[in-house]
Amino acid sequence: MSGEECVIGIDAGTSVVKAVAFDHAGNEVCSDETPFEPHRPHALWVEQNMDDLWATVRECTASLAARLADEGRRISGIGITSTGDGTFLINAQGEPVRNGILWCDGRSGEIVEKWHAEGIARAAFGICGTSIFTGSQAAQLAWLREHEPEALESAATICHAKDWLFFKLTGKRTTDETDESLTMLRMATRQYDEELFRIFGIEDLFPKFPPVLPSEENSAGIRPDVAEGLGLPADLAVVSGPMDVAACALGTGAIDHGQASTVLGTAGIHQVIMDRPILEPVMVGMTLCHGVKGRWMRMLAAMTATPNLDWFLEQMGAPLVAEAKGGDIYVHLEELIGEVPAGCEGVMYHPYLFPGGERGPFVKPSARASFTGLNLNHSLKHLLRAVYEGVALATLDCYRHMPVEPDSVLLSGGGAKSDAWCQIVSDCLGKPVSVPEGSQFGAKGAMINAGIAIGLYDDAHDAVKQTVRMARFFEPNAENTALYQELYEVYRLLAQRQMDLWDMRARILKEKT
Fold first, then answer.
1. Which of 252, 392, 480, 484 is least enclosed by beta carbons within 10 angstroms?
2. How do the residues of the chain divide into helix, strand and coil, expressed in percent and rounded to 5?
3. Secondary structure element (H or E) that encloses residue 8, with its range
4. Concatenated DSSP letters of 463-513
């Protein structure tokens, strides 16, 4: 019976690995997840040990498979998604060359600044539609060539996180259009373009890139020994893709031109779907292939979203945690920010917290977070609400630079669990916000793609119709929207006028270290 069958979606994120089982109607049946914190061996470095990543995925998948077997459920297929951008190297023997370099790594900052200053980034944008930032694979490969040339010499395959997991599950070295479109594909053809490799000065590495396939065609059978070790059917199909941001869009139902999807997670991912590759405005954000055939996405990805709140609680939230008296801290936080009016009575927060700076809507490796507008009348509650509003204003900043203006936004990620945050986002954007049922939309997008590949659904539209439903709706408060639209100008100009100061600060600190 189809009700006893399910598809597993694996989502290997920046700091947690999830394996989620969905029935064919898209309902979450059960899941297993394990924290997997990245390595930070140097101030600007953010890496994942590739063997440990595979071991964690294997552990989660085996645990989930055992639970499904106990419940008498048959597994129809597996879909994989993971973090985009970044660089994962595999040698000829199928072993990692070094740790995988993640999207939020900042080591290539000087190269990125140089490429933007010399027009290299602009030349590439005309082909791939993406503004190079520190997490871009091309910039990371340039850094490796300068600092670790032996790693590139040892590599037989240059790929991404999900491609590594697909290889371990199936033995196949491939990638899909979503991952590789950042930044190695010509958008019009959805295929590699050797001119891009020439522009980046890495044309000799072209033979090391794996075949690139549409997401729903990036499929292979599981290795028998792996299936046995994980307790999975020996004839199981494994489908790799789309990468996490495109998977979240698919998992929330954003598949048609003009639809918008925002993920408030580790990063603030903001996307509009397009029926053609629109490369205007120039040098803003990223253009990538959607996991849906005939669809593209313009994505503006703020480097960090919910970690701003996590950091605030860790560094300054002890009094707030104490006030919660053992209750749900996030419920308490929502009560507190409800006591502060929209606009925080002048306090503003810019959420550029990651070592790699910012990438959406502008690329600035030296960008840093800050509070402004403080006076003696402000309290910790004002700072707290300013963090929520800062992330929402960063969201507005990204949508103001989109080639297509959406009518409404689908919201997911950890931040979408907060009604207060959803309302603030709706107020800032001045648009209705809908939160879909469920919680694991990256894994769900991987599941939907796998379902299409193995014939459970006719196509993406059929899959979304069968599996995606809305849970909560938020309408903008007109008065708050009017205020936020004015405050946005202050927010934007403050960031703009700090550009040179961020660079000056970085130069001074570098001279002292």
1. 480
2. 45, 20, 35
3. strand 5-12
4. HHHHH--EEEEE---HHHHHHHHHHHHHHHHHHHHHHHHHHHHHHHHHHH-
SS3 call for 133 = coil
Distances 228 to 58, 99, 223, 235, 278 between C-alpha atoms, Å: 12, 27, 9, 11, 46
* % of the chain with per-residue pLDDT over 90: 83
Q: Nearest 5°: CA angle at 301, between 295 and 305?
A: 135
**Longest pairwise C-alpha distance within the chain:** 67
* pLDDT for 395: 96
CA atoms within 13 A on the CB side of 1: 4
pLDDT at residue 104, as a whole number: 85
Place of tokens 């958008």: 187
Q: Kindly report whether the global pTM for this prediction surpasses the value 0.90.
A: no
Query: Where residue 229 falls among pLDDT bands split at 50, 70, 90?
Result: very high
The angle, 0 to 180 degrees and rounded to 10, between the axes of the packed helices 441-453 and 244-252 is 80
Output the pLDDT for position 2.
42
Residue whose C-alpha is closest to residue 253's, from 216, 279, 305, 290: 290
- Show me where the domains of the chain are located: 307-406+486-512
**Short-list 501, 337, 312, CA closest to 419:** 337
Token pair 């029935």 in the structure block, residue: 23
Superfamily in which the 307-406+486-512 domain is placed by CATH: ATPase, nucleotide binding domain (3.30.420.40)
| Region of residue 344 (left: phi > 0; alpha: psi -120 to 50; beta: else) | left
Cα separations (Å) of 109 from 130, 364, 368, 439, 510?
Answer: 16, 8, 13, 34, 13
Indicate the residue type of 214: P
> What phi and psi values does residue 100 have, to the nearest 5 degrees?
-70, 140
Residue 317's pLDDT band (boundaries 50, 70, 90)? confident
Q: Identify the CA nearest to 503 among candidates 11, 109, 23, 44.
A: 109
Sequence-separated (6 or more) residues with CB below 8 Å from residue 376: none
Separation of alpha carbons 245 and 10, rounded Å = 14
